[in-house]
Amino acid sequence: xxxxxxxxxxxxxxxxxxxxxxxxxxxxxxxxxxxxxxxxxxxxxxxxxxxxxxxxxxxxxxxxxxxxxxxxxxxxxxxxxxxxxxxxxxxxxxxxxxxxxxxxxxxxxxxxxxxxxxxxxxxxxxxxxxxxxxxxxxxxxxxxxxxxxxxxxxxxxxxxxxxxxxxxxxxxxxxxxxxxxxxxxxxxxxxxxxxxxxxxxxxxxxxxxxxxxxxxxxxxxxxxxxxxxxxxxxxxxxxxxxxxxxxxxxxxxxxxxxxxxxxxxxxxxxxxxxxxxxxxxxxxxxxxxxxxxxxxxxxxxxxxxxxxxxxxxxxxxxxxxxxxxxxxxxxxxxxxxxxxxxxxxxxxxx
Length: 350
Hints:
Layout: E1 10-13, H1 18-29, E2 33-38, H2 44-55, E3 60-65, H3 75-78, E4 83-86, H4 99-119, E5 126-130, H5 166-183, E6 189-195, E7 197-199, H6 210-219, E8 231-236, H7 237-249, E9 255-259, E10 262-265, H8 266-277, H9 290-296, H10 304-310, H11 320-325, H12 333-346
Parallel strand pairs: 1-2, 1-4, 2-3, 4-5, 5-6, 6-9, 7-8
Antiparallel strand pairs: 8-10
Helix pairs in contact: 1-2, 1-7, 4-5, 6-12, 8-12
């Protein structure tokens, strides 16, 4: 059990990211000193929101430049930290040209670099790793073979590879490497979070996140003809951020944690939005026939292998351990979706 001194700085890797920005915000609001790593401190459009948050909170923020592929680049940011929250990892599901270079190497080598630096930093007591349910399962069809009918923290993705679901593969390799490195030493402990599909408002002005694009396409008419019969576990980004703080500062926290509020189909999410925005936006009205997915799916980034193993297969996650070990309470998905659309309206995106 790691007792973390709240007066010591906390390192957050990939600090300008979607989830990490909320983590930084909550740490600063609680009065912590945050060491945040980013690839380029001079890119103001990526870090300005963090600086603005720091100005209006009682915590202190220091930004450090670090590269997942550059050995030792996390050393300066980690100095003096007892808690390391490692969120930095590529999240790109579509449009990947070289999975090895764009996904596998940054995820795997980045994890090695951060954990190797922890091994060389005597103050480090705990590492919280942002993994994903992508490391729990590869395709929804796999649930058909489970007698329990639910994915748990005991499950590991064994079906993804470089050619099929390479993002899922990268998250699986990175988490397995983290556990292996954790077992090779005794000074720091590892707590892992496995969020489902993360939705909700963003703190930055960037609009290139998968979460933003997904919900935006639901309301801007992109899917007006219908949506694929796909199912996701949904979790609010603010809940995921708070889970990181609980995982970091609760001494008894340990092991993996599935973070999911509820599992829904894309059609069900569109129906939720229709309850409030019907007539205002061109929302999807039902499922897209599967044969159309086979015809046009590859042009939208849906390969036939993905369609075969995911379309029409509901999924279910057991989130009970996160409630027990981290005392998690989850926002309703409806609230998450409405908050995200309200943000789009405020920013003039729709």
